Amino acid sequence: MIPMNNNEIKAICRKCKRSALAEEFVMDHDAKIMVCPLCVAEKRKKDVKPINNPVKGFSSQTGTIKSNQPRDWDKEDEYLEKVAKKKPVEPKRSFERIDDQKISYVCTKCNYKFAYNEYKKYPKTCPYCKHPVANMKYV
């Protein structure tokens, strides 16, 4: 008898030799074969590792979190520390003026040199790597 419905088609798993519905098979990228749902479940069980990441500075004996800050440390100090961090420096934009409209621009991503029309704002991306042309800041 030929099954009329796709839900009735069964296949044999190449990994475990069990039969299962064909539509439930999944690609196992490690073994590079289609496997049944039971093999997938077994693999997921093996891959799951217990989470054993203790909190940094946590003392299991006292149940409290130790900190390196002084006792009078408060939210204001946290804010000041956050603000005082150095901000990332933007890469220097290197360009030279060719004429009134055009600028010789060097892409910040791939260092490709091309002509950029300042008035038409063209090209909008680097012709080589398609990285967007940054806004020009005159120094």
Keywords for this structure?
139 residues, alpha+beta, two-stranded antiparallel ribbon
Tell me the total number of β-strands. Answer: 9
The radius of gyration over CA amounts to 31 Å
pLDDT under 50 segments (min length 5)?
Answer: 57-64
Strand order of the largest sheet: 7-8-9
Number of helices: 2
Q: Tell me the strand percentage band.
A: 15-25%
> CA-to-CA gap between the ends?
82 Å
Globular, elongated, flat, extended or rod-shaped: what is the shape?
flat
Kindly report the average pLDDT value. Answer: 77
In N-to-C order, the SSE pattern is EEEEHEEHEEE
Overall description:
Helix content is 15%, strand content 21%. It is flat and about 75 Å long. Strand 3 (26-28) and strand 4 (33-35) form a beta hairpin. The model is unreliable at 57-64 (pLDDT under 50). By secondary structure, it is of the alpha+beta class. Strands 7-8-9 form a 3-stranded antiparallel beta sheet, with no helix packed on it. A two-stranded antiparallel ribbon has the order 1-2. Strands 3-4 form a two-stranded antiparallel ribbon.
Provide a quick synopsis of the model.
This protein is α+β, with helices and mostly antiparallel strands and 139 residues long. It is built from two helices and nine strands, in the order ββββαββαβββ.
Topology (SSEs and partners):
Blueprint (H helix, E strand, L loop, with lengths): L9 E3 L6 E3 L4 E3 L4 E3 L1 H11 L10 E2 L4 E2 L9 H10 L10 E3 L4 E5 L6 E5 L22
Antiparallel strand pairs: 1-2, 3-4, 5-6, 7-8, 8-9
